[in-house]
Amino acid sequence: MKKLIIVMLSVIALQSIQAQDKYFTKTGKISFDATAPKSPEDIVGVNKTVTCVLDTKTGNLQMAVLMKAFEFERALMQEHFNENYVESHKFPKTEFRGAILPGTSVNYARDGVYPVQVKGKLTMHGQAKDVAAEGKLTVKAGKIQVQSVFTELLADYAVAIPTLVADKVAKNVKITVDCLLEPLK
Amino acid sequence: MKKMITRMVVFCLFCLYAQGMNAQETVLLKLVGEDKPRKEYVKYAFKSPRVINGHSMEFLAPGTMDFRILHRFGLLNQGADNFFGLDQASMRLSFDFGLRRNLMFGVGRSNFKKELDGYIKFAPLMQSTGEGSFPVTVALVAGMTLNTLPWADPTIKNYFSSRLAYYFQTIIGRKISEGLTLQISPTLVHHNLVPLQTQPNDVYAVGFGGRAKVSNRMALTWDYFYVANGIETGVNYHPLSVGVDIETGGHVFQLHVSNAAGMNERAFITETTNSWSKGEVRFGFNLSRVFQIRKNKKLTQ
């Protein structure tokens, strides 16, 4: 009887110790490309301070992006992005809360590249939308790299493009995610 | 005993289950913890480094050049014969350059008095939020104007220095909210030579400028200078300009009405000869186009 209790308790204890199933970064990279065929210049923003957390046990994946941290080649573009399009003073943070679909099998203990599908809710510019994207996880030397490329429609997030520049800003924006996650201690 | 074991197993399974549930529910992002808000400089207090006539607390971004075309027309009350003043135009062209977050300079030329002007603007303190924040921007401006007209009286001995005037300004401004920016700017204008003995060489003035946003791309602006000395009743007046800033992608249009015709500090502070109370106002505009000269290279790394 006592043995049984000890076994049970140690199982629970082990589980909490074994919480080495969460991985994170605060320096993930997300870039977007809203260049339209008629754009006079590339409309590309890069953010290198993305927070990303992955729970390998549940497959839950969450990201937080500070909009003001997007950088552009041109200062004026950065100003327009913040002031006119995403209104970063009103909506400073974009968040994604979702999960890797259970169907995909990822062996986090073994190095390798695993294609995955992610579904969840993306909240940007005050609008929440269900999104799904394909990506890949690369497990290597105890770290996990999360990568994905997907497109989102600006209109879905109430980002208005004035008619004057309607053909110079793409309606569909290509988003590239690249986060290298380390074990969360 | 068996019952006990069964209960135990059920309890343990429940514990495991609850733990699993718990993990599902937590906001993972909270596990990482929020960073302390870092020091962040307040940007976009004005759409342009000029309120209307006077300098604003805003700086050009490093690596950019602002090409500005300014027009001041004749008095509106001239009526339809002169197309409400639009038949006459005085203008100034200028190039302003952003060097650092808090350092810029510019040169310009006005056709009135064929006057060249240049200035350097530096902010030792900038409005910021987060750790080590500061409530206002304090900017210092030093400028100079050079009159290049032929000498009024070539028969006397003329000195080059007589063509020069200087101005020094401190701008204290705050972006109070996303929609409202206010600033106050004590100014000294020094003429090396004044036309009349009764006119002071040093003129002191205080500027009051502001912006109220109407929408993301449009704002109301006002720019007033209280001139403390050297105002002669019926001759010159305190300059007041009221306008709208309209941003259209690459350009900023600053449309306004004003009693001032001058387009540099010396001219609009000491040579405003029209009066709002007499209905002597004119239409004018500043057109600003910002070019990126040096691109942000950090991106490609």
Structure classification of chain B: mainly beta
Separation of termini of chain A?
35 Å
Beta-strand residue fraction of chain A: over 45%
Decide which structural class fits the backbone of chain A.
mainly beta
SSE ordering of chain B: HHEEEEEEEEEEEEEHE
Average predicted local confidence, pLDDT of chain A: 89
Question: Beta-strand level of the residues of chain B, as a percent range?
Answer: 35-45%
Annotation, overall tally of beta strands of chain A: 8
**Cα end-to-end separation of chain B:** 68 Å
Radius of gyration of chain A: 20 Å
DSSP helix count of chain B? 3
The CATH architecture of chain A would be Beta Barrel
Q: Which runs of chain B of at least 5 residues are low in confidence (pLDDT < 50)?
A: none
For the record, what CATH class of chain A applies? Mainly Beta
**CATH domain fold name of the largest domain in chain B:** Porin
* Count of beta strands of chain B: 14
| Shape descriptor of chain B | elongated
Rg over CA atoms of chain B: 28 Å
Element-level helix/strand string of chain A: HEEEHEEEEE
| Helical content of chain A (DSSP H or I, runs of 4+) | 10-25%
**Total of DSSP H or I helical runs spanning 4+ residues of chain A:** 2
Question: Quick gist of this model?
Answer:
Chain A has about 180 residues and is mainly beta. Chain A is about 15% helix and about 50% strand. An eight-stranded antiparallel barrel of chain A has the order 1-2-3-4-5-6-7-8.
How would you sum up this structure, described in words?
The complex is a heterodimer of chains A (185) and B (301). Chain A is mainly beta and 185 residues long. Chain A is 15% helix and 51% strand. Chain A has one domain (21-183): Lipocalin, CATH 2.40.128. Chain A has helices at residues 2-17, 75-85; strands spanning 22-35, 44-55, 60-66, 93-100, 112-124, 127-140, 143-153, 169-183. Chain A has an eight-stranded antiparallel barrel with strand order 1-2-3-4-5-6-7-8. The longest helix of chain A is centred in the N-terminal third of the chain and has 16 residues, at 2-17. The mean pLDDT of chain A is 89. Chain B folds into two domains: 2-32; 40-300, monomeric porin ompg (Porin, Beta Barrel). In chain B, 12% of the residues lie in helices and 45% in strands. Chain B has helices spanning 2-25, 28-32, 265-270, and strands spanning 40-41, 64-75, 89-100, 103-110, 115-125, 128-129, 137-147, 164-175, 180-191, 202-215, 218-227, 240-248, 251-258, 282-292. In chain B, strand 3 and strand 4 form a beta hairpin. The chains are: A mainly beta (185), B mainly beta (301). At the A-B interface, helix 1, strand 1, strand 2, strand 3 and helix 2 of A face helix 1 and helix 2 of B.
